[in-house]
Amino acid sequence: MTNTIISFLEYLFGFSPSQHFGLQWAVWVFVVLALAGALYIYFKAKKSANTLLRKILMEYPGKFITIAALLIINLLSRDYGIEVLSMRFITYLLLLWLVYAAYMVYRDLTVTYPNRLAQQKQKFISLEEKYKIHKNKSRKKSKKR
User: Which pTM does this prediction carry?
Assistant: First the structure.
């Protein structure tokens, strides 16, 4: 039992894993997905007329680009045999960070954004009541000549 634990830890924390990495294509897919997600979020936020949604989404493209760049550095260092930068632990840690960032975007879009939108509407309604802001419907419109 201890031999399997020690061999697993050596596998995970080995400073110089072999240059052959069979699942390298899968990590490259995650890199492409991270870059595509960053571009999608960036353009979605820029085109949005809602300032609240824009404010929530604009913090994420930089995070996705950072994660993708670090994954690229990790994969290339493994190809070139650079010891410490190519650790499997760093690869798995970066992939977990990518999954966490994707979860944070999902959570912000499904939970945080609706809650803040409701707070903003409630704040506007309370301001209307406080300052007695009402639309004047009885006012006659002037005729244009």
Answer: 0.72
